[in-house]
Amino acid sequence: MTASTSHYDVIIIGAGAAGLMCAATAGYRGRKVLVLDHANKPGKKILMSGGGRCNFTNLNSTPANFLSDNPHYCISALKRYTPQDFVELVDRHGVEYEEKAPGQLFCKDSAKDILKVLLTECEWAGAEIRMNTSVSGIRQVAAGFTLKASAGTLSCESLVVASGGLSIPTMGATGFGYEVATQFGLTVLPTRAGLVPFTLHPELKQQLAPLSGLSCPVDAHCHQQHFREPMLVTHRGLSGPAMLQVSSYWQPGDQVHINLLPAQQIQHDLLTLRSEKPQSTVAHYLNQNLPKRFAQTFNELQGWSGPLQAYCNAEIEHIARRLGDWTIQPAGTEGYRTAEVTLGGVDTRQLSSKTMAALDQPNLYFIGEVVDVTGHLGGHNFQWAWASGVAAGNVA
Ligand code: FDA
């Protein structure tokens, strides 16, 4: 250590959800903590999350809500820091929230409330936060690490990488954490955008263009993963919770299957309608069960016309299949530009599920989105950030 080196017990790179949670936890243990971030403000993704109201946890979160090449890794941390623990924290700070969908807790007022909780906790715990600070080099030394930062040379006993994934580069996302992992000999699994809207091939995009802005509840699935949530048609393609969820399981070239009427027994309904009102039409049935504009456009695309009595049983079955399993092949996704998360990342097989530290580098920790643990939509990603941040903060 040179005379001008500032020494900390713990340096955390990334003042996002995971980094701030880790900082407060380590600070309360009496550790001298510094959080570094190259952005001008902490917690930018918290502020933009949940449409500005931050879906900060999900009361029903279980390990089954996470994707990872090593699915058991997240269990321990999630068990030790539960959604209820985070709810107790926000309650202590008097944050008002509401359950917008089953289990999904959002701030009543603003996502700023959650960031304020974290910054207040960091302050009470004595953790220092330095923004506008980048790190250009990390070196391992006998007692820990030295960092070449834009603010000068820093040293620490424990280094926590909480620099997030690649989604939304305009918010400061970088591949920094992956570079650090590689530098220290850890494997980084291929990354891709998750919870991201689909783009469509020109023909389908043009056909669906008149429906832009329409949303309807569907059951969408890809690789046996079903999501019964709303789908939204946009001027670029398909979005809404159902499509975002499915996108995390989708690989280029895959088809996406959409049941447009998940609450209906489509074939049975059509057969009944045919026998009770033979003059009725498929268009009429769709109008009753889908947003009008959607019903009309979809019916026109399929070319279903004439009274139901003109359709034989096999044709009715075919129509029911088209509605219950509308199969599309997306052109791609909107990518990291709009993705809520990054799938893949630091391979958790080389990390301790108890401490989040690298098994071969016990003082080097990886938490939050930078690791290969990605949640479903609905507050699970923040729950992972809190749980992994606390797990590392308890030992770093
Ligand atoms: P996060 O990305 O939050 O923080 C990383 C920090 O590291 C950033 O402050 C960044 O500036 C800094 N950094 C990066 N590179 C650096 C470098 N080279 N040097 C220094 N600092 C560096 N989840 C959820 O559960 N509920 C929700 O409602 C939403 N909503 C949502 C909306 C949108 C639009 C997005 C993009 C994402 C969400 N998410 C979400 C996902 C959630 O925001 C995400 O999973 C967490 O923020 C991840 O927390 P981390 O702390 O790991 O990374």
TrEMBL record:
A Pfam cross-reference name: HI0933_like_1st
Protein name: Aminoacetone oxidase family FAD-binding enzyme
Chain ranges of the RsdA/BaiN/AoA(So)-like insert domain: 192-341
UniProt organism field: Marinobacter halophilus
The organism's place on the tree of life at top rank: Bacteria
Ranges where the RsdA/BaiN/AoA(So)-like Rossmann fold-like domain occurs: 9-394
Keyword Aminoacyl-tRNA synthetase: no
Gene3D superfamilies registered for this protein in UniProt: FAD/NAD(P)-binding domain, HI0933 insert domain-like, Translation factors
